[in-house]
Amino acid sequence: MKTLTTYFKSIFRRAHHAARSNLAMAIALLIMSGNSLADLPYQLIDTYPHQPALFTQGLELYQGKLYESSGLYGYSKIIARKFPPSPTDSISGSALPADIFAEGISQYRGKLYMLTWRAGRGLIIDPQHFKLLGVFPYQGEGWGLCASVVKGRADHFVMSNGSDKLQWLAADTMKLINTVSVTEHGKAVDQLNELECLGDYVIANQWHTNNLLIIDGRNGNVLQKLDLSALATAANKTSPLAPEAVLNGVAYDASDDSWLVTGKLWPSIFRIKYILPALTKQTGP
Question: Could you state, in order of their start, the residue ranges of all structural domains in the chain?
């Protein structure tokens, strides 16, 4: 960078004032014509083993355990294990009926809520004994789910279905109350998959990419994105990953303000840290 700076300074000194102005304008335009959103930097804190047989659809950290839903018809399950893991830890969980394709999960008021892709119904599960506590209907496909709890506002769930739409469900009834389109500078961003809510933020995996999107859940604006290609490369080192072994799975750890991320069929879970971009203050109702 120092060499480039010196080089440009020498050019500027040799050029007259008009030429300097034109060159500066050209450089500014060149910079602005690049990616509309710069990648948000992150720090890799730690790496943990992950069962590579799990087709990860949802990830949730709750009371010292990491809960995970694994998809595919005939193989779907929900499991839990202490986290961070140790070699002697046991894994608990439950297999799901063969006609259920497990999708995103979220914890709310001591219960686990899980989507089931095309079945049109979600499951409410006891996280201690994995007993079925209830069922709720929803329209369309179910991909990702997260519970959004913000002081001064009614609790709700945010649900994705693979499109650019985020559905808001009332937490007490699980009925649809609003739909928000996710956009980046006015352009729709689709393939929204696994979700994690933190206040007004919605963190979303984008299917078949290595992007983790930071979304303002109030209006659907993509504020920033993380390119986690380096983590996908690290996960691929043990053995080549299948085409469907994509980045999917994000969980917030409030104990140290970090995030756990993994992928379908990945051999590793990664703990990362990053600084969330500021939210704009809303003046309307």
Answer: 1-34, 38-273
